[in-house]
Specification:
Helix 4 (87-96) links the parallel strand 3 and strand 4 (101-105). The protein has 199 residues and is of the alpha/beta class. It has helices at 4-13, 21-34, 36-52, 87-96, 123-132, 146-158, 184-192, and strands at residues 54-55, 62-63, 77-84, 101-105, 137-140, 165-168, 195-198. 42% of the residues lie in helices and 15% in strands. The mean pLDDT is 90. Bound molecules: zinc ion (ZN). Zinc ion binds at residues 56, 58-59, 61, 67-68, 70-71.
Length: 199
């Protein structure tokens, strides 16, 4: 059996997604036997990140400043807002270089059975942000899974009085797919082929 301290380290490494007992044990012994400097760096990085990283006040992406790099970039298009499910979706859209506006990150999808309602996704903040700004277009780029569609529909209903356009990406994104796994070209088509829902 492992010593209690090593066992505890193994248990904590298993918090990571996709890491089971075997991988966690290998990681723990690697760090302790072969790379203690890396173990310390990892521990310090985790400490610092947990201490300093929080949600951007404007888009909810993770950042160490009050506004993230994207929200504090004045060269972006202030007239469009893109609503996505996760930070990974923002990175995927940024890589496609097709979009230059701002973002709002829901950090999930509506899922009432799991206790994820409008408040958990920051939807009141989203609607306030939309009414406080003079957007010409709100792009709903939530995933095309059932939950992503449900979330988009909820937002569409709430925005029925929005004076600009509300659009939904559609073309090119496979149904049931998460945006982060879609390649840049396909995502580019999805953006240029978006359809207007409210105008
Ligand atoms: Zn931001």
């Amino acid at each position: 059996m492992h010593s209690p301290i090593i066992q505890e380290l193994i248990n904590h490494l298993k918090y990571l997604p996709g890491v089971g007992n075997k991988s966690a044990t290998r990681m723990a012994y690697y760090l302790l036997e072969q790379n203690r400097p890396a173990a310390l760096k990892l521990a310090n990085s985790l400490n610092e990140a947990v201490d300093k990283i929080h949600h951007c006040e404007s888009c909810r992406i993770l950042t160490e400043n009050s506004l993230c790099q994207l929200c504090s970039d004045p060269s972006r298009d202030t007239k469009t807002l893109c609503v996505v499910g996760s930070p990974a979706d923002v990175f995927a859209i940024e890589q496609s270089r097709i979009y230059k506006g701002y973002y709002f990150v829901l950090m999930g999808s509506l899922s009432p059975l799991d206790g994820i309602g409008p408040n958990e996704l920051g939807l009141p903040e989203l609607f306030k942000k939309i009414s406080d700004n003079d957007y010409k277009e709100v792009i709903l780029a939530t995933s095309t899974t059932v939950e992503g569609e449900g979330t988009a529909n909820y937002i569409i209903n709430e925005l029925s009085d929005f004076p600009g356009d509300v659009t939904r990406i559609a073309f090119g994104v496979p149904l049931g797919g998460d945006l982060e796994y879609v390649d840049g070209t396909t995502l580019g088509h999805a953006f240029s082929g978006r359809k207007t829902i409210i105008s």
